[in-house]
Amino acid sequence: MAAMSRTLIETGLGWRYTPPRMAALIDDPDTVALVACDIERLRGLAVMHFGEARAHLVLLCVDPARQRHGIGRRLVDWLLSSARVAGIGSVGLELRADNPAALAFYRRLGFVETRWLPGYYDGRIAARCMQRVLGPEPALR
């Protein structure tokens, strides 16, 4: 998981989500770490921290060879559903301002941009803060 984060999210930056930090996230009782894998290897991961009223999507990445196959959407959908069940009112996240594909992805999932943080990543790359307000779980038909 740490290697996937390093390669796909933290490219060109200092390594924040090292193996010990990932282990600490997994061990945190208020954090959920999901993985998508097949017989061969890890294909995607999502990590979300749950607070009292708000959750924070810490990490989301999908193997480039498996992007646009619904893996990221399914990971986020599962986390959003879990947040609703937990009574969470909103989910926030930050993403690199230099990642237009991620911005479009989150917008398709109903996230809206709330803030711009200059130099958020290593003092060099800005971040877009996004949020999604959660409503009730859609009714099954």
Question: What would your notes on this structure say?
Answer:
- The chain has 141 residues and is of the alpha+beta class.
- It has one domain (2-133): Aminopeptidase (3-Layer(aba) Sandwich).
- 28% of the residues lie in helices and 36% in strands.
- It has four helices and six strands.
- The protein has helices at residues 2-8, 19-27, 71-85, 100-108; strands at 31-37, 42-50, 54-62, 90-96, 112-121, 125-133.
- Strands 1-2-3-4-6-5 form a six-stranded mixed sheet, with helices on both faces.
- Helix 3 (71-85) links the parallel strand 3 (54-62) and strand 4 (90-96).
- The longest helix has 15 residues, at 71-85.
- The chain is globular.
- It starts with a helix and ends in an 8-residue tail after the last strand.
- The mean pLDDT is 89.
Short summary:
This protein is an alpha+beta fold and about 140 residues long. It has 4 helices and 6 strands.
Helix proportion range: 25-40%
Going by CATH, the architecture would be 3-Layer(aba) Sandwich
Would you identify the regions where 5 or more consecutive residues have pLDDT less than 50?
Answer: none
Secondary structure class reads: alpha+beta
Specify Rg, calculated over alpha carbons. Answer: 15 Å
What's the mean pLDDT score? 89
Count of DSSP E strands?
A: 6
Please list the strands of the largest sheet in the order they lie side by side: 1-2-3-4-6-5
Key features?
alpha+beta; 6-stranded mixed beta sheet; Aminopeptidase; 141 residues; globular; 6 strands; 36% strand; 28% helix
